[in-house]
Automatic annotation (TrEMBL), chain A:
Keywords annotated in UniProt: Signal
Family: Belongs to the leucine-binding protein family.
UniProt protein name: Urea ABC transporter
Domain Leucine-binding protein: 37-376
Source organism: Lichenibacterium minor
Domain of life: Bacteria
CDD domains assigned to the protein according to its UniProt record, in alphabetical order: PBP1_amide_urea_BP-like (cd06356)
Presence of keyword Signal: yes
InterPro entries in UniProt: Leu-bd, Peripla_BP_I, TAT_signal
UniProtKB/TrEMBL annotation, chain B:
One Gene Ontology term of the molecular function aspect: transmembrane transporter activity
A biological process from GO: amino acid transport
GO cellular component: plasma membrane
CDD domains, per database record: TM_PBP1_LivH_like (cd06582)
Family per record: Belongs to the binding-protein-dependent transport system permease family. LivHM subfamily.
Keywords noted in UniProt: Amino-acid transport, Cell membrane, Membrane, Transmembrane, Transmembrane helix, Transport
Intracellular or extracellular location(s): Cell membrane
PANTHER family, per database record: ABC TRANSPORTER PERMEASE PROTEIN, BRANCHED-CHAIN AMINO ACID TRANSPORT SYSTEM PERMEASE PROTEIN LIVH
InterPro entries in alphabetical order: ABC_transp_permease, BCAA_transport_permease
A Pfam family assignment: BPD_transp_2
Transmembrane segments: 6-27, 60-84, 96-116, 136-156, 186-210, 222-246, 258-276
Full protein name: Branched-chain amino acid ABC transporter permease
Length: 414, 288
């Protein structure tokens, strides 16, 4: 009987403590995040033609924001993510960009996938003075004080593919590329790097995104008999090129390098005989074994399921963009646009899954590590590592410290 | 010489491909005057049938050449019974309905398989034309197209079904008065056209990326070829494929795929200007 009473009293005490705790908890939480949240806007394509790439970038954005919030937010304030799915539609980019800048009044925007989408929203954020981070590997050259680009650019990647090809295979290249601004500018860079390295380009073909039959192109390449084929082909229809190339028995005859191959799920959906040996160069590969990189993959898999096996540079660059911005906010002690830009221009460095990433004050592009890799039975085999790659392409024409009013995209002159 | 051989082989492949992607649309349009805007999506379903079958370990040839026409033919049958049969003789309404079906199918496949590019391995290797390599699978494409032409001509010319079918197309009410049920014939024709679209999707799966919106890349060419061919379905489609495929491949090889497309379109515009009823509207009018 006595035993029973004590236990009841104990139970009461325990219950009281739990109740008090429950009541008090939101109070502590409120105190910790007393101020208004900092608003981070995100514009990415979660559905539609670019949904495959965009979905992972959206997940990475959420992952990075959660990570910052778990560490106590920024300046004692929580970060609120306001994300819109642009559905691979250019019109929605402009529409949601206006909404983020004028209605939601966000403090920073992270997003945009294709170069076309970036060029659609860049002027809107310039006009409304909203800080903008573009986190996709692209053709380089954007020079705008309001914009920070964290993805790798041709001087950091394509340069190494061309260099490797010149040393390993020979001096004659044939370029096949997608017929829009990315393909054209990347093809120009490929041509420039080939010529700089003492090689030559024996032919360049551009393909609209709806081309599915590459037999005439493959015949043309065979006729020109190059030592290497360089590809900047983009999208689902163009993936047929690699299959038809393999089917025509060209795989073993002429080696190939590509500036976009493997950014999607090519490694899991294509036959290894088609993918093996295509040389690529990006700022990150999911087979990197550095602790930060392994952590990132594990963290994403814990949050979104074990089938997250197709992470790539687009995702880590998104992570880099958010971390660089967070670091700048801490350094500036404010989310005010000009103060954050000043902090970013002081040469901020963060350690991320892709290694050491430094914001270059002159170009607003990142100085980062690049890796050369090739698929080997559905896994990336890292061939070479190039630390501290400078965005020399953009730097050739852009100096935002000297000319902060510059606002254009430079393209290579041949 | 080697190069001429390679280019000639490519031209024949291009013609065969164009014929395969067009004939299903031609059968449905030519015989029933129904513009099937879901044609590209029927091809896409054929390609997904092939992908799924290969993933489940079905023999690759069965997966590419047998299952897609069967499965898509059945789907076509279901579509005809549930939607199309209520809309005969109303061209605009059938266009709207089939467009809706095409959007629905894209959405459905995206939900089921995800918005990713799937692939089927190519079952055969390559061979040499002199010092140039060419894909052996292109021979499969050419063979499939030839078999499809011969089988269709045989079906229309020598079987009772073909006779009844032609009679129904020429004068449905007279055929009905003679004891034929036009409804059944229409149903069978629509299923046949769908099956041919499925076959095209299946046989093209190994050399193209299989994704939910792949149909869009083929549909415009298919329509142009059907219009260029004129009223005799098989002969017309064959001749128009030959003409357009020849021009497209040759110009693409000499210049670029963009100019090739432009040349194809110019040829189509000229052809329709000179022969508004298509090739078989003027020549070979009594062919099938």
């Amino acid at each position: 009987m006595t035993q029973d009473t004590i236990s009841r009293r104990r139970a009461l005490k325990l219950g009281g403590a739990v109740a008090a705790g429950t009541v008090a908890m939101p109070f502590y939480a409120r105190r910790a995040f007393a101020a208004e949240p900092i608003k981070l806007g995100s514009l990415l394509d979660g559905t539609g033609a670019l949904g495959l790439e965009g979905r992972r970038m959206i997940q990475t954005t959420q992952y990075a924001v959660d990570k910052l919030n778990a560490a106590g937010g920024l300046l004692g304030r929580p970060i609120q993510l306001i994300a819109y799915d642009t559905q691979s539609t250019m019109q929605l980019y402009s529409q949601f960009a206006q909404k983020l800048a004028l209605e939601d009044k966000v403090d920073v925007i992270q997003g945009g996938i294709t170069s076309a989408s970036r060029e659609a929203i860049r002027p809107i954020f310039d006009r409304d003075k909203t800080l903008y981070f573009y986190n996709t590997q692209y053709e380089g050259g954007v020079c705008d004080r309001n914009v920070f680009c964290t993805g790798s650019t041709p001087a950091q990647t394509v340069d190494h593919i061309v260099d490797y090809a010149l040393k390993t295979w020979g001096k004659k290249a044939y370029i096949v590329a997608a017929d829009y601004n990315y393909g054209h500018i990347t093809a120009s860079w490929m041509t420039k790097f080939m010529k700089d390295g003492g090689g030559s380009v024996v032919g360049t073909d551009f393909f609209p995104l709806d081309v599915t039959n590459f037999s005439s192109a493959i015949s043309r390449i065979q006729q020109a008999a190059p030592d290497i084929v360089l590809s900047a082909l983009v999208g689902a229809n163009h993936s047929g090129f690699y299959r038809q190339w393999d089917a025509a028995g060209m795989k073993g005859k002429i080696p190939m390098g590509s500036s976009v191959f493997g950014l999607g799920d090519e490694l899991t959906t294509m036959d290894p005989s088609t993918t093996n040996g295509i040389v690529t160069c990006y700022g990150w590969y999911n087979s990197l074994t550095t602790p930060a990189s392994v952590d990132f993959v594990k963290g994403m898999q814990a949050k979104y399921g074990a089938d997250v096996t197709d992470l790539g540079e687009l995702d880590t660059a998104t992570f880099d963009g958010i971390m660089l911005w967070a670091d700048a906010v801490k350094k500036a002690g404010s989310v005010d646009r000009d103060k954050v830009i000043d902090a970013l221009e002081s040469g901020i460095t963060v350690e991320t899954p892709s290694g050491k990433v430094t914001m270059d004050p002159k170009t607003h592009h990142t100085i980062r590590t690049a890796y050369l890799a090739t698929p080997k039975d559905r896994k990336w085999d890292i061939l070479q590592t190039f630390p501290d790659q400078y965005p020399a392409d953009t730097a050739g024409a852009c100096d935002l410290i000297k000319n902060p009013k510059t606002n254009k995209q430079f393209v290579p002159t041949l | 010489m080697d190069l001429t051989g390679l280019v000639a082989f490519n031209v024949v492949t291009g013609i065969a491909t164009l014929f395969l992607i067009t004939i299903g649309l031609g059968v449905i349009y030519g015989m029933m005057r129904i513009i099937n805007l879901a044609h590209g999506e029927f091809m896409m379903l054929g390609a997904y049938t092939a992908v799924t079958a290969v993933d489940h370990g079905v023999n690759i040839w069965v997966a590419l050449l047998v299952l897609p026409p069967l499965v898509v033919g059945l789907i076509g049958l279901a579509v005809e019974r549930t939607v199309i049969r209520f809309l005969y003789g109303r061209m605009m309404d059938t266009m709207l309905a089939t467009w809706g079906i095409s959007l629905g199918l894209i959405g459905l496949v995206t939900t089921l398989f995800g918005n990713v590019v799937k692939a089927v391995p190519t079952p055969v290797g390559s061979f040499e034309i002199g010092r140039y390599g060419a894909s052996l699978f292109n021979l499969v494409l050419i063979g499939t197209a030839l078999v499809a032409i011969v089988a269709l001509l045989g079906l229309l010319r020598f079987t009772k079904f073909g006779l009844v079918l032609r009679a129904t197309m020429q004068n449905a009410r007279m055929a009905a008065a003679l004891g034929v049920s036009p409804g059944t014939i229409y149903m069978a024709t629509f299923a046949l056209g769908s099956a041919l679209a499925g076959l095209a999707g299946g046989v093209l799966a190994p050399i193209s990326g299989v994704s939910p919106d792949m149909g869009a890349a083929y549909i415009a060419r298919a329509f142009i070829t059907v219009l260029g061919g004129g009223p005799a379905i098989v002969t017309g489609t064959g001749l128009a494929s030959g003409l357009f495929g020849f021009i497209d491949e040759l110009v693409s090889f000499q210049t670029s795929p963009v100019i090739g497309d432009v040349a194809l379109l110019c040829a189509a515009v000229l052809l329709i200007r000179v022969l508004p009823q298509g090739i078989t509207g003027r020549f070979l009018r009594r062919s099938l």
